[in-house]
Backbone:
């Protein structure tokens, strides 16, 4: 085997080596440490002690707030990912058509995603404020309301607002993922469908959706991960109050670790969240790949 053949064989691995090293140091190694900590006794000062098996997991699951937090997390992920995917797909279809001002519209759509989540949550926190919020002021001035409404009358309504903000900031990401897939579709497919007498809905279901499915799969999997791990929106608006009723797993484990000083159960929760994400993302990708094969 000559030198050129050896070089061609190993060159791709050399190019990948820096990325593999970075992933190992900053991703894989910390994950292994967290797994180790979840089976260890951790003091309030953060001192790691003896191996205690599944005790941290038992303590985390036995907590009275655990079931409610998990249910909130399910509602949060399903509503934000599901609704933002639907709206994002519709917006992407709209932006894929030719109309005057399309470039400006695309620029406007990207703003919510480009802005910091803390800033977005703070702005919405101000908008829905009962005493001086812009939402009440605008509706009162337009004559739609006679008296100001308390948009945060209960924790259920507050949680709905948090989901709404999550959807608002997530739609641009889905939009541009789907838009990239739409722009890669050759016009010849639509021309052939038109010749065969296909209308809008048949083109959508038989041409657009199958061809844009890879982009939808990527955006959905990434969305599940991002939304599940989203911290700023809920922490900025309610901090999980009252009594963890608006907490998701990420904000709850943060409170557990840094407010209640229960670092062991918090570490166990982070491992549970990691495993759940791997299972859900893996199942979704397997189902999508099977559909593509069919």
Residues:
């Amino acid at each position: 085997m000559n030198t050129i053949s050896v070089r061609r064989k190993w060159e791709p691995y050399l190019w990948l080596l820096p990325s593999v090293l970075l992933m190992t140091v900053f991703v894989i190694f910390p994950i292994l440490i967290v797994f180790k900590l979840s089976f260890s006794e951790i003091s309030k000062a953060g001192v790691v002690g003896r191996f205690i098996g599944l005790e941290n997991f038992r303590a985390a699951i036995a907590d009275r707030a655990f079931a409610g937090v998990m249910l909130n997390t399910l509602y949060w992920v399903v509503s934000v990912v599901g609704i933002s995917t639907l709206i994002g797909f519709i917006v992407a279809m709209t932006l894929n058509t030719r109309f005057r001002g399309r470039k400006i519209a695309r620029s406007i759509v990207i703003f919510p995603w480009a802005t910091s989540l803390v800033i977005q949550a703070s702005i919405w926190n101000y908008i829905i404020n009962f005493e001086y919020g812009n939402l009440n002021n605008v509706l009162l001035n337009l004559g739609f309301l006679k008296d100001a409404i308390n948009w945060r009358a209960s924790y259920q309504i507050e949680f709905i607002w948090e989901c709404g903000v999550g959807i608002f900031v997530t739609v641009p990401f889905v939009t541009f993922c789907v838009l990239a897939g739409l722009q890669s579709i050759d016009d010849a497919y639509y021309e052939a469908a038109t010749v065969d007498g296909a209308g809008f809905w048949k083109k959508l279901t038989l041409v657009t959706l199958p061809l844009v499915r890879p982009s939808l799969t990527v955006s959905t999997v990434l969305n599940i991960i991002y939304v599940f791990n989203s911290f700023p929106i809920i922490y900025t608006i309610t901090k999980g109050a009252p009594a963890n009723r608006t907490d998701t797993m990420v904000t709850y484990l943060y409170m557990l670790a840094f407010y209640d000083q229960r670092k062991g159960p918090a570490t166990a929760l982070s491992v549970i969240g990691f495993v759940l994400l791997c299972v859900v993302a893996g199942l979704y990708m397997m189902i999508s790949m099977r559909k593509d094969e069919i």
User: Anything to note?
Assistant: The first helix runs from residue 3 to 38. The mean pLDDT is 90. DSSP finds twelve helices and two strands in the chain. The beta strands are 40-42, 48-51.
